[in-house]
Input
Amino acid sequence: MLAIGQDLPASAGDLVLQIPSLPSGWQFVLDIIPIQLASECLARLGNQNCDGFRLCSYIVEDEGGLIGPDTKL
Output
């Protein structure tokens, strides 16, 4: 088990990632970056392309999205 947090005991998991305290305005960085790094590592270990889209083969590039102004719902 991977545990990520601040002031965690060493027995909190098999792998414990201690992160420093930061001002609350930067908390989002501590919330997402460590788990993204861990998932990228797991993807590489599983021979998965972490930069490819598996479930969605397209990217929306404008504000209209997939439904245009002429689309009837």
Observations:
- The chain has a mean pLDDT of 79.
